[in-house]
Amino acid sequence: NFSDVFDEEHFIRYLANDVKVEKNLPKELVKAPKSVRYFKSWSGVDYYQNEISPLWEHRQVIRAAKSDSRLANNFLPPDIQKLRCRTFFQALRFAPPIEALGNLLVERMKSFGPYIALHLRYEKDMLAFSGCTYGLSDTESEELAMIRGNTTYWKVKDIDPLEQRSHGHCPLTPKEVGMFLSALGYPSSTPVYIAAGEIYGGESHMVDLQSRFPILMNKEKLASAEELRPFSQYASQMAALDYIVSVESDVFIPSYSGNMARAVAGHRRFHGHRKTISPDR
């Protein structure tokens, strides 16, 4: 639920003068005609005025089946653009328990000195979906291909990993990230926070990065099992902790340009000049 990740009361209060937000449908609308709509991605205001607004002539309740990327980035009226920015970066605030632990992780990370937050996309599901197998063993590559073949809602099954990589569609491997940071001139004493889920292959794929940057931390190292227990069964809450530490980092580097990487980069930009480095893959 929304309130499991975000501060629902703050969201409602903050937007009160712009949008009336209800937690539940009013009683008079519970049995009203409803409609589920897949709004077009990256749509402008005209689309909502001309195609969506008329739906209310026949339906009183419309549910957006998806909410990601439904509004265009550019060519919007300034008031709409400003409202979106305020919503993203001020109305949306993590739930107090997440915010509290996230800030504690930032404090503990800063105790090592200025740090890099590395959003390392190298989880099993991501590699299986993308077909990126560079640096993996034959056994690992076969496992990922099997996962992709058995996941019915992934439409593309046959993927050429070399072609994917040559087109820049693959994340950097942990080893490549270490080489990249060293090439940029960061000393081995630089603290690095790994914002990620479970790295595919575990420590075997992290050896080179760890040897280059020994102060390699993550939320599991910075927090006790007891502190993480309320969140550990919920991937979105664990990702929220990584998000907080990434936004507050001295330097943010994503190994892959996914949704979280773009959100963090935008959030940092909203707060002023905070260095974000996006490798050319």
> How many structural domains in the coordinates?
2
Sequence of secondary-structure elements: HHEHEHHEHHHHEHEHHHEHE
What is the distance, rounded to the nearest whole angstrom, between the alpha carbons of the first and last residues? 35 Å
* Helix content estimate: 40-55%
Question: What's the CATH class of the largest domain, please?
Answer: Alpha Beta
Estimated structural class: alpha/beta
Shape: globular
Annotated CATH topology of the largest domain: Rossmann fold
Strand order of the largest sheet: 5-4-3-6-7
Largest sheet: 5 strands, parallel
Query: For the residues shown, what is the average pLDDT?
Result: 92
Question: Could you write a compact summary of the structure shown?
Answer:
It comes from Aegilops tauschii subsp. strangulata (Goatgrass). This protein is α/β, with parallel strands linked by helices.
Kindly describe this structure:
The protein is of the alpha/beta class. The chain has two domains: 2-91, no CATH class; 96-122 and 171-276, Rossmann fold (3-Layer(aba) Sandwich). Helices cover 44% and strands 9% of the residues. It is built from 14 helices and seven strands. The protein has helices at residues 2-5, 8-14, 45-52, 78-91, 96-110, 124-130, 138-150, 161-166, 174-183, 207-212, 219-222, 225-228, 235-247, 259-270, and strands spanning 34-37, 61-64, 116-119, 192-195, 216-217, 251-254, 275-276. Strand 4, helix 10 and strand 5 form a beta-alpha-beta unit. The longest helix is centred in the middle third of the chain and has 15 residues, at 96-110. It is globular. 23% of the residues are buried.
